[in-house]
Amino acid sequence: MKRVCTRQFRNLTRLRSFGEVREKISRSINHVCLSRRSFHGSACRLGELELTSVRYPHVQRGKYATLTEKDVDFFQKLLPQRVLQDPSELDGYNIDWMRTVRGNSQMVLRPKTTSEVAEILKYCNERHLAVVPQGGNTGLVGGSVPVFDEIVISTQLMNQIISLDEVSGIIVCQSGCVLETLDNYLAERELMMPLDLGAKGSCHIGGNVSTNAGGLRLLRYGSLHGSVLGVEAVLASGEIVDCLSSLRKDNTGYDLKQLFIGSEGTLGMVTSVSILCPRRPKAVNVAFLGVENFEAALQTFQLCKGMLAEILSACEFMDQESMQCIQENLKLTNPIKSYPLYILIETSGSHGSHDEEKLNVFLEAAMGKGIVQDGTIAMDVTQRQNIWGLRERIAEGLLHDGYNYKYDISLPLPKLYEIVEDMRQRLGSKVTRVVSYGHLGDGNLHFNVTTPEYDKEVLGLIEPYIYEWTSQVRGSVSAEHGLGFKKRDCIRYSKEPNAVKMMVKMKKLFDPNGILNPYKTIPL
Amino acid sequence: MKRVCTRQFRNLTRLRSFGEVREKISRSINHVCLSRRSFHGSACRLGELELTSVRYPHVQRGKYATLTEKDVDFFQKLLPQRVLQDPSELDGYNIDWMRTVRGNSQMVLRPKTTSEVAEILKYCNERHLAVVPQGGNTGLVGGSVPVFDEIVISTQLMNQIISLDEVSGIIVCQSGCVLETLDNYLAERELMMPLDLGAKGSCHIGGNVSTNAGGLRLLRYGSLHGSVLGVEAVLASGEIVDCLSSLRKDNTGYDLKQLFIGSEGTLGMVTSVSILCPRRPKAVNVAFLGVENFEAALQTFQLCKGMLAEILSACEFMDQESMQCIQENLKLTNPIKSYPLYILIETSGSHGSHDEEKLNVFLEAAMGKGIVQDGTIAMDVTQRQNIWGLRERIAEGLLHDGYNYKYDISLPLPKLYEIVEDMRQRLGSKVTRVVSYGHLGDGNLHFNVTTPEYDKEVLGLIEPYIYEWTSQVRGSVSAEHGLGFKKRDCIRYSKEPNAVKMMVKMKKLFDPNGILNPYKTIPL
Fold it and tell me: Which stretches make up the FAD-binding PCMH-type domain (chains A, B) (predicted)?
């Protein structure tokens, strides 16, 4: 039993009667969608989604070759039984899991080795055949599906763990390893992956690295630019760039692996990675707090950064409208009273009672200063999952409203909620809800608007206004989702012309024929 | 008073009579050398050091223009009173602080702003005048001094702190800020820089970023690839690439800033940086332990990683020969009995008594299991500095032997000491000492051999043997020092030909005329 830190902290035990959300909640709705067993909130079934080439008529197919029988013969010899061409099998590779884009690829290749990937790319480069590398196909910006008839190179069969040094915590594996599989493998050895995502049951580590995935552990363990120690990638030419170092320090020349982190498969296809894995925490605590305004939320974050310091592992927030959404649409129960904003704080450490003491002292201070008004602490794993469920099921709740306009932006912390209030005023009664939540500790806002159905006028009120707003305060129009196909033309809101010019030059240097994941990342 | 965790841990209080090293020790001998007030172990005075062009006759001057009066006029107009040409003033910019290389630059430019740097580079690029960017000139591989007559662009006057967001801990500053100045500024705000180096009193943050400096906090806070959030750099063409984001998350296009981290000023000159700074720890503990062999050292590291977990901030090691060196040459006292290997463990946390308890429990376990034989814990700041002094003054101690062959390599942890034993056998009685120490937690070995004077035969026994050995186990021939001028031709021991080829292409893309820090990083 956890002790109550102050009398004010009166809702501590309410969570026990938290029946509505007691069912096992996967860390996010993503899990459900990703399995493709079902899809919530969409009337659209497989086969009915219009082709990307139809929906986005301004995007023209590049001057690439078209697949011939000779090509198919080549690939079938190279990858016996590992070339998919049956249209019924191709849908899952042509359509993104959000069901917003649909390519028209006629062939999926499933290599098992780096040298097979090298053979494929060498051939495609010589033949001017465009390709799209694909991992778990869990991206949110249409980056991992074909736009036209690009050949899909899937990493599904590249799923071998190559090595683990348990002393240093460095794992080396192929790019097709599923994140959760790796995390489970590490859990048996008291280690864990430095990143965690809702899509972890499906996403591939190669895709995580290629999109510089952020997620729930970034506040504590930093970005993949720091924790990825090595990358092996195949260039468009078929040349293998082996920077698969498993060293913490290596200052010999340019750090080429960084180029493949976050470039969405447009500079090379990641085939193996080496990652530094932290120790798995022995104790995890979760608190859910109510505050009166965003200023108090920031004060809470600052206070917990100082007082929880090395054990702070997440600082998430959600607003009243987020809570209303999950209450109304998912019938979840708010474990505390209604407040304008809620904060979820997680600690992860090596010593349970030390961590509890720190958390209690922090909560006493936060409530004593009048920053935090109310709160509850999870008592066990189920309660932890339930509190996390409140934060993570908002995305699911939103789908029930009808149409959902989704944005994933980074802003300087003092500006993080100003945009929400501004937008709420701007949209007024034209919309069902303006809902925001996100990673407070990372300055990452998930901003959402819902309407009963798609409304062009509402879209016109949101865009480009939200991008211009973000740009003016030097925010990022894509905090963690990347640009992919759908956002590549928004790059100018977050990057200067000289930077974009350098990117274009680098793309040309690495992939002169432009065969690698065309129509993605780099703007038209 | 700190309690003794076991009876075995009997040397706890010995440190109090630790008179020999009680004088205030700067974190490293580097401090002394860097100030250029004195230089230990070298008979060579300023003016006597031979020119790099003489010492390395195989390196030919590139086909660059030579400085004319018209050029000088241009720079004097652009930077009034900030162009140095007096030969007596130029020595400090032409010679590295180790006094191993000496350029022959005729001019030092001291811009204050990014746009001045842009003007300089635009002009130099058009005129084909080669330049070398220089920060605190504290590098160890001759990367920041001219090789021939390159114009020095010093960041000495680019020392403004631009902003600090105390909530997120993100500082933005010009590249010429001295690391220690930044750390002191942050200390007043309960924050700290994520890196710490012996040279912190002199080195510039722009140089740290350009060389991807490692240092003493890397084990805990990771590399600069993770903690640098933004970079503003000027390309050879004079174009400013503004990627000075102060966001934790930004996935809009390629992460160009990574290219400037560790590329030693050969792709662009860093003018400003944005860095994520951790909270300053409230409690710091240091323990000094003796173990019987390297296997026990690894077990100690593994145990403390697990038990100290989030509070572990350093795990350094030094061998018996290191201890003998500082005992004999610096008259320092070993606070415990003599052991084959010693380990220094530092914890940093937010709660003193929690940290002490964790440390004591760890020490009890380590001694109970028979892994650690003996040890002592620092009782106060002075004792902490004294223990750190044992580890950090080895470099100074070595200089007293005469000639010092120095290597800075990364190896897979299980191999880290094997190379030392192998080399000790190989060199036998031909040398004074074979000494090794380093960052155990990072797999980074500082390997040293001494002889009374420079001995070509000994050098031939060490090189290329040590590089080949390192290469065979996929180690790095430069863990944290970079390649610069002196090690650029060693790159092939740690990087594959395809990777080097890509680097050469990138250099050509970013700097087609090759004016930026020529003769560095990229091999001949």
Answer: 101-280
